[in-house]
Amino acid sequence: MMLHHSRRFFTSSTRLCSSPILAIRKEDKSMWERRAPLSPRHVESLVKQGIKVLVQPSTHRVYPMSEYVKVGAEETSNIEKADVILGVKEVPIASLIPKKIYVFFSHTIKGQKHNMPLLDEILSKNICLIDYERLVSNKEQRLVAFGKYAGIAGMINVLSGLGTRLLALGYHTPFIYGAPAHNYPSSSAAKKALKTIGNHIQDGVLPKGICPLIFTFTGSGNVSQGAQEVFQVLPHEYVSPNDLMDVKRTGGCEDLFFH
Hints:
This protein is of the alpha/beta class. The protein has helices at 6-11, 40-48, 65-70, 116-124, 148-168, 187-202, 222-231, 244-250; strands at residues 21-24, 52-55, 74-75, 84-86, 101-104, 128-131, 214-215, 236-238, 256-258.
C-alpha cells in the first residue's frame, strides 16, 4: 500500500521537499539480522516515481548492494539527507537523527520497559515514528506481521536448541545434528537436514528416558503453519488432547507426537 501511494505520502507532508529522499538503513542490532525493509524490486518502483533512495552498505543484508544500485539507488553511509529512514529492527539510540521520519519495529507500542529509553529519545529529538505494528486496516488488522517463514525459522531453531538441551541433560539424540536457522542457505536445505535426522529417529535411536516426545502447537496463524511445515518433515503422528495420557503410557521412540 505504501509503495502504491508513496509519492502522495511524501508530497502530502509539509516537512518534506519537492524531491523526496528515502533511506534504507543498515541493520545493526544483531549480527544475524539479514532482512531488509525493501527489496531491490520495491526500490525500482520508488525510483520510477521520482523518489531518491539511499542505501547504507551492509555485509549482512540478504540483497547484495549491487542489486540496489542497478535499479537506481545510491550507496552511501551518510543518510542524514533522507526525509524518511526505513529499517527492520530497533534503531540504536545513538544513531537516531533528529527531525526525521523513521519506519521500523520499535517494540514500544505495548509499553515494553526495555525500550522506553528509545521512545524517550525519539520524542526528545522530535522524530516522527511510524511503527510497522501500527500499520493496520480499517478493521484494526495488522498489515505488516510475522509470516510463515518466522515459524519455519523458529521451529528449526527449536529443534536445534532441543538437541543441545537434551545433551546437557545427558541424552544424545539426532537433534544434536541440526543447526540453527541462520546456518542454512535456504529452508529447503534445512528440511533436507531434518529429513536425515528423521531417518535416525525412525531407526529407534531416541533414548527411552525421553520417550514419547510430544509437541504442542497453539493457534493456526502464519507462524504456527510455518512451524508445523518444518515439524512434519520428521516422522510424526497426530494425537488429540484427549489421547495424550494413552500416548504417554504407550507411545514409542520411532515417532514424534503432536497436537
